[in-house]
Amino acid sequence: MKLFTAPPLSHLSRSPAGETPRDRQAACLPSAPSQLRLMPIARLAQGGRWRVEAMRALTEPCLLWFTRGQGRITVGGTTRGYGAHNAIFIPAGVMHGFDMSPQTHGSAIFFGADCNLPLPQGALHLRIRDAASQVELNALLEAAQRESESDRPAADRAVHHHLGLLSVWLERQAASGANDLPAPDAARKLVARYATLLEREFRSGHGVADYAAQLGVTPTHLTRSCRSSCGRAASDLLQDRRLYEARRLLSETRAPVKEISEVLGYTSAAYFTRAFHARTGKTPSQFRKAP
């Protein structure tokens, strides 16, 4: 098992004749590697900062351990500042994105789609002020790295057990009061529900009014709550999520632009191209050809 390799890219070719839009949509869904992986946070932005800053969700849990730098991170519709010695746990399926600068350093731990560790059910934002706890976490990650790179017998099992100790570390830090996520008020609860719904249905072509109706509120109230919780309009979160997926498909697959527009619920390839250009400054074809 190689813990420190980047996840493989998915590849998508033109859909066979007779395949339905739902079939094509399923084919575009990324599948998480089954193995645990760890990599420098800076590496996550290879190919563009949109890979970390735009809203997305993963099909596996992950932990971001920031050792230097600061910025803002949005998890489940709530935006908070992060700094050095912040550990942020994000469960599978939770929409998130974070600002990143050249001064941002740390590690990203991906637990794999087949992870059976007892990990937290909800997101955590741990501000680790205790030096001993910082040293303990760094030691766990370094030990896992050493085992992953060794040829000794049972190295895979040793890596798994080190990550099991990491799950214990997370549980203990959460119990100690290090979790800095604010208590959810009515606005944050609504936006968390919106983020969950959006992640599930962003390919449907629905607009903010459709989501607001499903949530039992007006579009104005939903947008006001989003601005209060994360400083962005409901429509911004929706477009950001759809265009992250568009960029991912353009860069990681060979799917035609028309097919990508259909998968993401756009009414036409022309409308998709205009929306993509307005947000990125490039057409889908130009983005795909860019180095």
Any chance you could write out the topology, listing elements then pairs?
Layout: H1 21-28, E1 37-40, H2 50-53, E2 62-68, E3 71-75, E4 78-82, E5 86-90, E6 96-98, E7 105-110, E8 124-127, H3 131-149, H4 155-175, H5 186-201, H6 208-215, H7 219-230, H8 234-252, H9 257-263, H10 269-280, H11 284-289
Helix pairs in contact: 3-4, 5-7
Plain-language structure description:
- By secondary structure, this protein is of the alpha+beta class.
- Strands 1-7-2-5-8 form a five-stranded antiparallel β-sheet, with helices on one face. It has a three-stranded antiparallel β-sheet with strand order 4-3-6.
- The protein contains eleven helices and eight strands.
- It has helices spanning about 20-30, 50-55, 130-150, 155-175, 185-200, 210-215, 220-230, 235-250, 255-265, 270-280, 285-290; strands at about 35-40, 60-70, 70-75, 80, 85-90, 95-100, 105-110, 125.
- The protein is globular and about 55 Å long.
